[in-house]
Design goal:
The chain is an alpha/beta fold. The protein has two domains: 215 residues, FAD/NAD(P)-binding domain (3-Layer(bba) Sandwich), CATH 3.50.50.60; 114 residues, FAD/NAD(P)-binding domain, CATH 3.50.50.60. The chain is 28% helix and 20% strand. The protein contains 14 helices and 16 strands. Strands 1, 2, 3, 4, 5 and 16 form a six-stranded mixed beta sheet that branches. A hairpin with a 4-residue loop joins strand 4 and strand 5. It is globular.
Length: 411
């Protein structure tokens, strides 16, 4: 029986696999490499995270985004220069080839209990057994659509997760609902692609990260608002650098912090683009209906006033909510035994759920380890902690696993 199976091949799955590989812990990893980023993020998008916070993690940090960009002659800066989506995807694919060549481009379609572990069924028809299963599925399965929109037919309603090519909406009338980065980014890119787009958000104003000045910050400012992988500020520094400590806060407090911290905002580089996009701010969608092939949205403002908007298509940029019932490939018995808090699995300090042998990393671990789990920056901690725990639990000496050398080219 296999020691560990990893489901998911984004930054978290690849980071965990790279760490297990170096420690010689036998594993198999399944999934399409960087699938969410490659097939579900809009072309032309740029990451909110700074360059230094956009790594995928090998144990010695030998192949960082900076190293990748140096090898390929791509412009890079630890901060101040946005990372293009295309660059990040190419980096993830190169990381896979160099650090995780074992990745199997197969989908796990079923996980069932088995004696001593779990039985995995793959879309290829193959089966595999593993003592432990690490779920690194990211945002996949967790798209959230408000109930006020959910009744719309699929041809008139979609989620930002389903749109990698804004050009498909050229010359079409479309409304984007939401005030976070995914909604704002897509609205700006749809406008650039020639769509007749409007954005509706409940916030009274859209928020953007501060544009970097390029100047050194005074010492007092560095102390009051220290730099971190989640942005400046003492709280962000704590969330980014101490997820293990965060885990020991009371559960209710942890859930409240995750719910309210690092709220909806977009990168500074999108602000000018959004100046050309019509926005209706301070409105929520009260109800939606179809009239003559168009979507009629009834909007309500904070003061109770109403207005109507018609459009040919609605895109929900309303984020993601973790819900174990959405993981339909998990056996129903397993899902029912996973203890949750605010929809997310309650995890031990080793990322293990209430079902022994089932682990979660990434966004599903946010209520246990903090907001950093919603970002690629958290993959380093997750990979280190999980590998330490699995290494200690091995009943026998780990099998030897060859590790490819990392060749670097100096430009």
């Amino acid at each position: 029986m296999l020691n560990t199976a990893i489901i998911g091949a984004g930054p978290y799955g690849l980071s965990v696999a790279a760490h297990l590989r170096r420690r010689g812990i036998p594993f198999r990893i399944f999934g399409r490499p960087m699938d969410s980023w490659l097939n579900h993020m809009p072309k032309g998008m740029m990451l909110k995270s700074d360059g230094f916070a956009s790594n995928i993690y090998d144990p010695d940090q030998e192949f960082t985004l900076k190293h990748f960009c140096e090898e390929r002659g791509i412009g890079y800066s630890d901060a101040g220069l946005p990372v293009r989506l295309e660059t990040f995807v190419a980096y993830g694919q190169a990381f896979r080839e160099r650090m995780v060549p074992e990745l199997e481009d197969k989908q796990v379609v079923r996980v069932d209990p088995a004696p001593g572990g779990f039985l995995l069924q793959l879309d290829s028809g193959e089966t595999a057994t593993a003592r432990r299963v690490v779920l690194a599925v990211g945002i996949t399965h967790f798209e959230y659509v408000p109930s006020s929109l959910a009744s719309l037919p699929r041809e008139l309603l979609s989620h930002t997760f389903g749109h990698a090519d804004p050009q498909l909406f050229k010359d079409r009338n479309v409304v984007v609902i939401g005030g976070g980065a995914s909604a704002i980014d897509l609205a700006a890119l749809l406008h650039e692609a020639g769509a007749d787009v409007r954005l509706i958000a409940r916030q009274a104003e859209l928020k953007f990260h501060s544009m970097p000045t390029g100047k050194p910050r005074p010492l007092w400012q560095q102390m009051r608002h220290p730099k971190s992988g989640l942005g400046p500020g003492l709280r962000s520094r704590f969330y980014a650098n101490a997820p293990g400590v965060f885990h020991y806060l009371p559960e209710r407090l942890r859930c409240e912090i995750v719910e309210r911290s690092l709220g909806p905002s977009a990168g500074w580089f999108v602000r000018d683009k959004m100046a050309h996009v019509p926005c209706l701010l301070g409105y929520t969608v009260d109800r939606a209906a179809v009239q003559d092939g168009q979507v009629c949205l009834r909007l309500r403002a904070a003061d109770g006033s109403e207005r109507e908007v018609q459009t040919g298509h609605v895109i929900a940029g309303t984020g993601y909510k973790v819900d174990m019932e959405r993981l339909r490939f998990l056996n129903k018995e397993i899902r029912s035994r996973i203890k949750t808090a605010s929809g997310m699995p309650v995890l031990s300090s080793s990322f293990e759920s209430s079902v022994p042998g089932i682990y979660f990393v990434g966004i599903a671990a946010a209520n246990s380890f903090g907001p950093v789990m919603r970002f690629a920056f958290g993959a380093g901690f997750a990979a280190r902690r999980l590998t330490q725990v699995l290494a200690k639990s091995l009943a026998q000496s780990p099998a030897s696993v060859s590790v490819p050398s990392v060749a670097r080219t100096t430009k």
